[in-house]
Structure formats: C-alpha cells, structure tokens
C-alpha cells in the first residue's frame, strides 16, 4: 500500500487528512518568492487534480501559475 489515498475510505477524507495538510506544510516551508511544484494525476474514478486546484486557488498567500 504505497499510495496515500489507499489509506482512506474516500477522496474527501484523504484530501482533508493528507493532501491539504501536505500542501499547507509545503507552503509554510517555502522561502520568500519560493516555488512549489506538484505533480498529481487523476485516476479513472477520482479527480484529484480538480480538488487540489480548487484548494490551492483559495489560498491567499500564494500565486497559482
């Protein structure tokens, strides 16, 4: 079980308990004018990219490119 998403019962639980925390910690660790690159692929059943994008664009302290 190497994929984090397999540890959770559904995508929403995974996102709140893993991905959102990972993104927030990564943003907090950035130096001023730093960059964060994420590589995320959707599965046949779930849209991880859309959920991640929607979360990131709501952040006020970063610029999405």
Structure notes:
The protein has 65 residues and is mostly helical. It has one domain. Helices cover 45% and strands 0% of the residues. It has two helices and no strands. Helix 1 packs across helix 2. It is globular and about 35 Å long. The N and C termini lie far apart (32 Å). 5% of the residues are buried. The mean pLDDT is 88.
Write the layout of secondary structure elements.
Elements lengths: L10 H19 L18 H10 L8
In short:
The chain is 45% helix and 0% strand. With 65 residues, the protein is an all-alpha fold.
* Amino-to-carboxy terminus distance: 32 Å
Shape: globular
The low-confidence parts are none
Q: If you compute it from the alpha carbons, what radius of gyration comes out, rounded to the nearest whole angstrom? A: 12 Å
> What string gives the helices and strands in order?
HH
Characterize the main sheet. Answer: none
């Amino acid at each position: 079980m190497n994929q984090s998403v397999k540890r959770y019962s559904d995508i929403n639980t995974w996102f709140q308990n893993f991905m959102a925390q990972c993104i927030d910690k990564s943003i907090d660790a950035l130096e001023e004018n730093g960059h964060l690159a994420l590589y995320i692929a959707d599965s046949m059943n779930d849209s991880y990219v859309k959920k991640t994008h929607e979360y990131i664009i709501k952040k006020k302290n970063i610029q999405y490119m």
